[in-house]
Structure formats: structure tokens, C-alpha cells
Amino acid sequence: MPQSGGFNQPLPDCCESNESPNAVNIDENPDQLESNSASANAGDECSSLPAMGPYDLGALRTSFSSGALSDQDKYKVLKQFDQPQGYRFPAVSEGGQLRRFQASWFVNYPWLAYSKSENGGYCACCMAFASSIRTGGKFGALVESPLTKFKKALETLASHEKTEYHKDSYAKMVAFLESASKGQSVVSQLNTLHAAHIQKNRLVLKSIISAVEFCGRQGIALRGHRDDAKYLEDTDLNPGNYQALLKFRCGAGDTVLAEHLSKCAKNATYRSKTTQNDIIDILGGMITEKVVAEVNEAKIFSVISDEVQDVASIEQITFVLRSNIEK
């Protein structure tokens, strides 16, 4: 029966580099990993795995969690984990219906591996690297246990792909495979990916802060009565000027912001009223510092203040500063 598996997807742009003329193709000669990769261990000559895959991650779960696999074995597993094609997956009963693991899931989730011993799915990159990224806590299905509930499998896979530990594990796997195939340092590759991740997050924040700043400069109210996340996708409601401006930016070509809002976790959109208030407070502090600096430079200045009660019977005080600044 035909088989295919292992991670063979194109590497991200930040990982692409020209092949060194002295680099060894480890797909053709895995035994040369030790002498050509900075990540290999000196004691990996005797592999505990069969020479060829595909490898069942369910059977190797204990080896992964205990750290018993050498870098050479880990490389072989990540390149040849089981993704069977043309295989009739065993059916399980869920809610009175028979359901099966689907080979089509491998297309959208290339990190997904099938375990024949447990009739379930595992995340290959998280199996290999998640425990080194986050200590304590539980990872749940796809890492500590197989995905065996197939009714909502697509929801589980999509949710798992958005977790921070999966993103970090995926980046670490890409760096590991890249370094193993080109003889480069894992640390160097991770630093490159980490720097690219930071730069992308800064671009996202820049777009979000620009939207808040625009509303403030133009004296436009940011929020209305329907600003919560559950109303954002309802086209019949007006979520407010700020949310509409973010949507406009995405439609006008801000691809970084659009990708972030479409793929990020629900608790990491940075478009909530809490984030808006934080940004407003920071911008207000910057404006205050600038005004104070200008007043301190002035030779003469005056202060006028007044207060009034608002509709909530809270006293609101206003300061007016006048200064003579030579420019």
C-alpha cells in the first residue's frame, strides 16, 4: 500500500539560504548527520530506530517525552513520520456514527502524523520540541495523547495550530531540519526565526497603534455599543470607528495586519477595548511628557484650571498651559 510522510514542506523565507557546495544531502545519507550538523551528538552512531520509516509517533511518545531520542533519530523521525495514503483507517463510533481519520487532513496540516498503534493523530513538531519550550502545564491532544475524537477534528487541528507553543515548536523544527541538512547552527537558525517573528509583531502593533492615533488626532470616538469580539463579524452591526478602520486597513492592502487577524488566537488579536485603553494611556503619557518638556524650556508660562461635575457626579478638572517658546 502506498505510503508517504515526514515534513517536506518549503521552508519559510527567513530560513532560505543558498546551498553550501560542501553541504551533504542527509536524505540520501542520514549517517553523515553527525559530521555535518552542529546539532548532532557525538554518541549517535548507534541508532535505536529502524533504518527506514515511516515511524509511528504513538509508539515513540515515551521516547520523545523522556528525551531519549538522539538528534540523529529525531531528524529521521521528522523526515519520515507516518502519513499513510491509500490506507483504510479504522472506524470508531462517536455519537452513534462511525467516523475515521482522514488522509486529506495531511494537506492543510503537514505537521500532522498518524499513529497506527493508537489510531489517532499527533503533532510531529510539538512532540519533538514543545516540552523544551514550555515547562509545566499540559498540552493535551496531539502532543500528550493522540487525536482520536474525529467529529470535531478540524476544529481541534485549527485551534492547535494557533497556539503559541505550536508556532514556536514549528519554528524550532524548521530550524532543526535546516541546520541538519546544511550543517548550520540550530541556535543561529532559531535566532533568525525569532528576529523575524519579533519584526512581524512590531509591524502588527504599528498598524494597530496607527489606527488609535488616527482616531485621536481627528477627534473621532473609537468605540460604540457593539465593540466586543462576538459582534465583529456581524455585518448588520456597527462595531465602532476603530474596528471599522482596522477592517479598512486590511482591505486597503495591509497584508501583515490581515494575516494576523485571520490566524491569531482569539485572546491575542490586540484589538479589544483593553488594548485600546492601554494604547491611549501610553500615547497620553507621551503627549504629557512632550508638553511638560516644552513648558520647562519656556522662560514664562501660566496655568489656568477649572473643574466641573460630569453626568456620573465625578469631578473633572482641566488644566490649560500657556507658554512662550522660541522656535
Give the helix/strand layout.
Layout: H1 33-36, H2 61-66, H3 71-80, E1 92-94, E2 97-99, H4 105-108, E3 112-115, E4 120-123, H5 124-133, H6 153-161, H7 164-182, H8 186-217, H9 241-251, H10 255-263, H11 273-297, E5 301-309, E6 315-323
Antiparallel strand pairs: 1-2, 3-4, 5-6
Strand proportion: 5-15%
Mean pLDDT across the residues is 79
Structural class: mainly alpha
Helix content: 40-55%
| Overall morphology | elongated
Radius of gyration: 27 Å
Give the strand order, joined by hyphens, for the main sheet. Answer: 1-2
Structure overview:
The protein is mainly alpha-helical and 327 residues long. Helix content is 43%, strand content 10%. The chain is built from 11 helices and 6 strands. It has helices at residues 33-36, 61-66, 71-80, 105-108, 124-133, 153-161, 164-182, 186-217, 241-251, 255-263, 273-297; strands spanning 92-94, 97-99, 112-115, 120-123, 301-309, 315-323. The strands form 3 sheets. The protein has a two-stranded antiparallel ribbon. Helix 7 packs across helix 8 and helix 9 (241-251) packs across helix 10 (255-263). The radius of gyration is 27 Å and the shape is elongated. It starts with 32 loop residues before the first helix and ends with a strand. Mean pLDDT is 79; it is low at 10-46.
Write a concise keyword list for the protein shown above.
mainly alpha, 11 helices, elongated
